[in-house]
Amino acid sequence: MTQFDAFADFRMNNHHVIITGGAQNIGAGIAKTLASAGANVMIADLQGDKAKKTAANIEGETSSHCRGMACDVTNSEDINAVVAATVEAFGGISTLINNVGWGARHDDPTAISDQAFIDSYKLNTISAYRMSMACLPHLLKAENPSITNSGSFSSAVPAYDILAYGTSKAALNQMMISIAHMLAQKVRVNSILIGTVMTAGYSDAGIDPTVQEKLLHPDNLTGRTGKPRDIANAMLWLCSPAGSWVSGQIIKVHGGGSVVRLFDS
Questions:
Q1: This prediction's pTM
Q2: What proportion of the chain, given as a percentage, has pLDDT over 70?
Q3: CA 20 to 30 Å from 12, out of 94, 129, 215, 233?
Q4: Where are the beta strands (DSSP E) in 153-240?
C-alpha cells in the first residue's frame, strides 16, 4: 500500500525560480526555502557579490542549483540579462517572485518631493511589471507557472510615515490583480502583504529596532514581529503545486496586524 505524502504538493522539483532582492533578509529566506523544496533558484539583487555569496551558501546546504547575479530592477537591460541567464542556467522559468522593494521614512510627510514618489513607483511597482512581462514568454511554457509579489501591509492601512512606499505598494496590489485576470488560466498571480519582519532593511530605512516593542499590542494577534521564514513558508505554498487553486489573491501575512503606528515619537 502506498503511503500518503502530505507534503508532496509543496515540493518544487523541476521549478525554476527568479527571486529579486534575494541576497539577504526576507528574499534570502525565500530563496533558501524554495531551494530546500527542490527548486532551482536565481537570485537577482542590486548587490551582485552578495547575491552570488548567498546563492553559493544555499547551494551548499540544499540539493538544488542556485545562482546569483547583479540586477538593478529599474533597468530593463538588467532585467533582460537576468531572464536570459536563468533560462541558460536552468532551461526555463516557471516561477517569478518580485520581492525587491524599499522605502524611506519621511520625517515630514507634508513635504515629499515628486522625485521621491517617482523613484518609489519605479522600484516597487514598475519593476515588478517589467520583470513579469520579461518572464512571461517562459512562464507560458512552464508547468504550474506563477508570479508572486512581496507586497506590504503599509499598502492597506494608514502609513504616512512611509507614504511614498505605501502608495507604490498599493499600486502594486491593483496592478497584480489586473495581471492575474489578464493571465487567467495561464499564469497564477498573487501577492503577500507582509507585516513587520525585523531585518537589517529596517535599520537601512532609518527605523530603530526598538519599535518592535510597539508590536506587543492587543491588536497584533500573535504578539511578535515576523521572521523571514514566516514569509518564505507562505511563498512556498503559493508557488508550489499546493497553491495551484490560488490566483488573483492578496494574502496578509502579518501576525494578525496592528493599528499601532510604528514611528510615533
A1: 0.90
A2: 88
A3: 129
A4: 188-194
